[in-house]
């Protein structure tokens, strides 16, 4: 392997090959994007059906899907971290971004008694948009970026509409920011 | 005018190690071994050469009760790599 009389082209090839091998592979996380997208979309639609079609009082209990998805998410990334043999700058950027996202999400959930749920759901749509648009920008994946910006715009519209419609808009926001980009990610 | 190429970097395996580490905060010895296709013995020798030149930092620890070696590039290493790239450019620039 040792070779001291490298040609310039060979040096450039080695650099290029090694840079390519360290490229971030978001396809590994395809399942997580789809899990969150479908969990939120189905929960929102289920809440609408229970609350407005079947008049179930505690329809919000459907959101217990979130802590369950959170546990699955935690196990997935815990295992991934344990198995990881290299840590890139992109890993750190994405890890910081999503940690901040979770903290912001929790803060807004605790603020829900003050803001009201019809004030919180649009905020969540904007937050989803921030998370996915930033991720798309960091890893240069346009579908996530576009989905994120659209989700933020849906959030803006949702501020002006009633809670009933907001449930549909929430499902729509995760569809554009998580589900569609998730399906567009190539298989691992 | 051709600039001299750093002999420490102008070698297939050492250049591969440095190119990998330029893009990573840290990497396991086994990760570098897998990506470069080098043998453990040869890799160990080249890693030590880079470490002795302070181009990379090598940390040994235990992970799940197994010895674990992780490597990361130092500031001196980043400077050396950038200088190497600049020197390479002088070889591919069209001459007037």
TrEMBL record, chain A:
The chain crosses the membrane at residues 31-52, 58-77, 97-114, 120-139, 146-163, 169-186. This is Uncharacterized protein. Keywords: Membrane, Transmembrane, Transmembrane helix.
TrEMBL record, chain B:
Residues 13-92 form the Winged helix DNA-binding domain. PANTHER family: BSL7504 PROTEIN. This is Transcriptional regulator. It comes from Marivirga arenosa.
């Amino acid at each position: 392997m040792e070779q001291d009389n490298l040609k310039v082209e060979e040096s450039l090839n080695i650099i290029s090959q090694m840079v390519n091998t360290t490229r971030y592979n978001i396809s590994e996380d395809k399942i997580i994007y789809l899990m969150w997208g479908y969990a939120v979309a189905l929960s929102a639609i289920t809440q609408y059906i229970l609350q407005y079609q079947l008049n179930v009082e505690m329809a919000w209990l459907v959101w217990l899907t979130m802590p369950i998805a959170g546990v699955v998410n935690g196990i997935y990334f815990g295992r991934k971290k344990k198995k990881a043999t290299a840590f890139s700058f992109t890993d750190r950027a994405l890890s910081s971004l999503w940690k901040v996202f979770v903290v912001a999400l929790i803060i807004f959930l605790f603020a829900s008694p003050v803001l009201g749920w019809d004030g919180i759901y649009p905020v969540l749509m904007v937050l989803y948009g921030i998370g996915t648009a930033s991720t798309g920008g960091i890893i240069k994946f346009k579908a996530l970026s576009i989905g994120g910006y659209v989700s933020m715009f849906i959030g803006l519209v949702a501020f002006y509409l009633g809670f009933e419609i907001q449930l549909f808009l929430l499902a729509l926001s995760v569809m554009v920011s998580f589900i569609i980009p998730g399906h567009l990610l190539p298989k691992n | 005018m051709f600039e001299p190429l750093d002999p420490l970097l102008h070698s297939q395996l050492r250049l591969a190690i440095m190119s990998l580490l330029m893009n990573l905060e840290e990497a396991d010895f086994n990760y570098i071994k897998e990506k470069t296709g080098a043998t453990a013995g040869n890799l160990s020798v080249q890693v030590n050469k880079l470490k002795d030149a302070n181009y990379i930092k090598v940390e040994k620890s235990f992970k799940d009760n197994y010895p674990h070696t992780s490597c990361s590039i130092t500031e001196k290493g980043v400077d050396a790599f950038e200088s190497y790239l600049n020197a390479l450019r002088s070889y591919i620039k069209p001459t007037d």
